[in-house]
Amino acid sequence: MSEKLKVGIGGLGAIGLTLARAIADGTLPDLTLGAVSARDAEKAKGNLAAIGAEAPIVPLESLAETCDIVVECAPASVFETIARPAIETGRIFVPVSIGALLNHMDLVDRAKDTGARLVLPTGALIGLDAVRAAAEGEIESVTLETRKPPLGLAGAPYLVENDISVERLNEAKKVFEGNAREAAKGFPANVNVAAALSLAGVGPERTSVEIWADPDVTRNTHTIRVEADSARFTMTIENIPTEENPKTGKITALSVIATLRRLTAPLTAGT
Ligand SMILES: NC(=O)C1=CN([C@@H]2O[C@H](COP(=O)(O)OP(=O)(O)OC[C@H]3O[C@@H](n4cnc5c(N)ncnc54)[C@H](O)[C@@H]3O)[C@@H](O)[C@H]2O)C=CC1
Ligand SMILES: O=C([O-])CC(=O)C(=O)O
Which family does it belong to (predicted)? Predict the structure, then answer.
């Protein structure tokens, strides 16, 4: 039997801790936990013990030293600290703060030289298989409409800078319209999905994004609409927020688990 691949997890929050649990309990039998990084090492020790996991706790920049796969599950502000060593060391790098990746696309060029691979989960979104397939032909337009409970958007830099209030809304309010690059900059903790969609399809400049603060939704709801020479499609996902972080849908961690599973699976379904 070949040796298990070692996974390093940067950030043990809503996504990272769920992934650590899935590795520790054998959900991903070809993988083992190589190392983790956490802001609070003592708390992390307790969290790992509670899920029956054992792994050294190392600084973010050291994950790539010992791990074959580095999974970034941290705030966007420390993205580069995790990503750059993983790319320089030729690892498989799985990011979830995909909005942050848009500011570091030089890493993709660098990966060509080091042999690293960037593998982006669909995350909280839907349908990137169809978008990637359509992008092999001609795509005319891609739009993302995101609707969130107003509190899930509060504090976003774009709202603060433009003095847009999402308090006491009686009806849905469109708070942003622009492209995916502008959306990722203005809403760094909210529209990783826009960045992922753009990288699967026609790039951040040509991917249109609308963000709505909607008092009638309790779930983070994303609709993608694609017009291409092969097909027209519209898909919607309604994400149940995690208990740990209401900004993050439960399916995100599952998407990361599914992404890691297909790295070693003898059969994969979906493009
Ligand atoms: N791609 C997608 O579809 C989605 C991406 N996300 C993004 O994924 C990322 C993680 O999300 P969550 O797990 O919900 O966040 P979270 O806030 O629950 O967890 C982040 C963890 O990183 C830790 N951390 C912060 N600074 C650190 C440091 N310097 N060193 C080590 N650990 C540190 C925090 O203590 C926390 O435990 C965020 O950037 C979020 O925006 C979230 C949802 C969907
Ligand atoms: O819907 C979610 O779970 C989170 C989200 O929009 C994102 O981070 O892009």
Answer: Belongs to the L-aspartate dehydrogenase family.
